[in-house]
Amino acid sequence: MKSILRSGLRFYLARCPVTEGKGRLYRLLAERLLPAEREVVATLDPGFRMALDLTDEIQREIYFFGTYERKETSLIRRLLRPGDVFWDVGASIGFYALTAAACVGRDGRVVAFEPFPPAWDRLQNNIRLNSFDNIHCVHAAVGAAPGAADRFFDRSVTDGVAPLAPAPGQTSKVTCRLISIDPFLSETGERPPLVLKADVEGSEMAVVAGAAKLLSGSTPPMLLLEMEDEQFARHHTSKAEIQTYLAGCGYAAYELKGRRWIRCGDVRGARCRNFLWVRTD
Q: Tens digits of per-residue pLDDT, 11-42?
């Protein structure tokens, strides 16, 4: 009976077009209906499989909803076409990288940057599960300049995040290789991305600062950036600083309202977490 109820919940959360009440139902039932196995392999809506650890909050949501950040994922799937290039900065366990790989096909290219060893290992495993040969993984963090940096993490969190500036509970650290976008492009000969997504726990300003030539050049990518005040404060930066910098490169911000991405005059007052940035000149 439990497995039938679990399958029904997963089908409803993934397939029902009515979104109102889904979060409440998930919070009420998900933990009660978890399978006995901690590790599962799930087939997801974008058309690939992932190995998931159900003790991790985000991976548990992916398992039940069949996707992650549904509206942002939908945007990526609309923007990318076969042959395109997508860069995933802070790829974690690979959801966005795998989504993009399915979109761009064999003639396209995905470059996934991930410094944190547990997330890196699961990222590699998830790529192998799908036999994707269009994803190139870089075991490094991305910042304003090449070098090395300590990343802080909480050992009790499975495949957790590892920011440069620790949050409460993140008392363990690991030293990671640090690269920046512009030198990486010139040294590797990689094709510039059509879309660059960055979710790096408050280090987004450093990522774009290290990509000045790319952002100001003739092939500027669209940017999907996570921008959260609490994370920025730990890194001594702000939404306003990123907005000023990107505006100087000719970019404008778009925020998600309902199901539409709307031009945003000032990101400081916007309530969404992820912003789309597009060169408008």
A: 888 888 777 788 898 999 899 989 989 999 99
Give the 3-state secondary structure of the chain: CHHHHHHHHHHHHHHCCCCCCHHHHHHHHCHHHCCCCCEEEEEECCCEEEEEECCCHHHHHHHHHCCCCHHHHHHHHHHCCCCCEEEEECCCCCHHHHHHHHHHCCCCEEEEECCCHHHHHHHHHHHHHHCCCCEEEECCEECCCCEEEEEEECCCCCCCCCCCCCCCCCCEEEEEEEECHHHHHHHHCCCCCCEEEECCCCCHHHHHHCCHHHHHCCCCCEEEEECCHHHHHHCCCCHHHHHHHHHHCCEEEEEEECCEEEEECCHHHCCCCEEEEEECC
The pTM assigned to this predicted structure is 0.90
